[in-house]
Design goal:
This protein is α/β, with parallel strands linked by helices and about 240 residues long. About 40% of the residues lie in helices and about 15% in strands.
């Protein structure tokens, strides 16, 4: 549909935490060589994703609500700064024969890399550690596609993402550099986080990077927001009542 609008979802650690996956890099790994550290992270996180306490019901609920209630002139695009691929796995579990009208792309774009192993990962984003400087980032196909889409987009939802670590600060800096010339400069953001201080901090960082953007803070967990049927999206005309 030529005149369709796109709602872009940014997922941070809050999504994994809501699914019972609060895993973080052990502090004793801090002094390991970079490649050794990355290998340990990938091995550990893959195991944690299949752990007995991981429950992806919140993701399934989100996808179900989007499938059932997204109005015909809207589509959804998923972007993650997480290394896990719980969201991608649940989309694959839908066994989509064709891309449904509510999805702009069935691929979850991982900006900081992923522990998912495919037969060919050559186009995927580079695996980045939280402490990596901006110079560590390289222009991969996946990251370039996501960035190009983001700067020309207007509507965003952020779930459990703080924009606090260096890799995420880089994204806001990149958006700030182009905000005068691209659609992102006058974008609309809904920030979801149950932690009031974290919510205010992430909202403030987005507002500072994009001073002409509209930023709306919603102090709820993902589960609580889903229980309320995401009223802000109904107000925006994204979802039916």
């Amino acid at each position: 549909m030529a005149n369709s609008k796109c709602l872009n979802w940014f997922f941070g650690r809050g999504l994994a935490i809501s699914c019972g996956l609060p895993w973080v890099v052990p502090p004793e790994w801090a002094s390991l060589p970079r490649e050794t550290k990355i290998k340990r992270i990938k091995d550990a996180l893959r195991g944690e994703m299949d752990g007995p306490f991981v429950d992806t019901t919140p993701i399934r609920r989100l996808l179900y609500l989007l499938e059932q209630h997204t109005l015909p002139n809207w589509k959804h695009y998923f972007i993650s700064t997480n290394w896990d691929y719980l969201l991608q796995r649940e989309i694959q579990a839908l066994h989509l024969a064709v891309r449904p009208p509510w999805l702009r792309n069935s691929h979850v774009f991982h900006l900081n890399g992923t522990v998912e192993e495919l037969a060919d990962n050559s186009n995927r984003s580079q695996f980045l550690l939280e402490e990596d400087p901006a110079s560590q980032r390289s222009g991969t196909v996946e990251a370039k596609m996501a960035y190009k889409h983001i700067v020309w987009s207007q509507y965003f939802v952020v779930i459990g993402m703080s924009f606090e670590c260096e890799t995420d600060k880089f994204l806001l800096s990149a958006l700030n550099r182009v905000e005068d010339d691209m659609a992102i400069g006058e974008s609309d953001w809904i920030i979801i986080n149950p932690d009031r201080s974290a919510l205010e901090a992430s909202s403030g960082r987005i507002a500072a990077a994009l001073p002409r953007a509209s930023v709306r803070s919603v102090c709820f967990s993902l589960e609580g927001w889903l229980d309320r049927k995401m009223p802000e999206l109904r107000e925006y005309g994204v979802l039916s009542s």
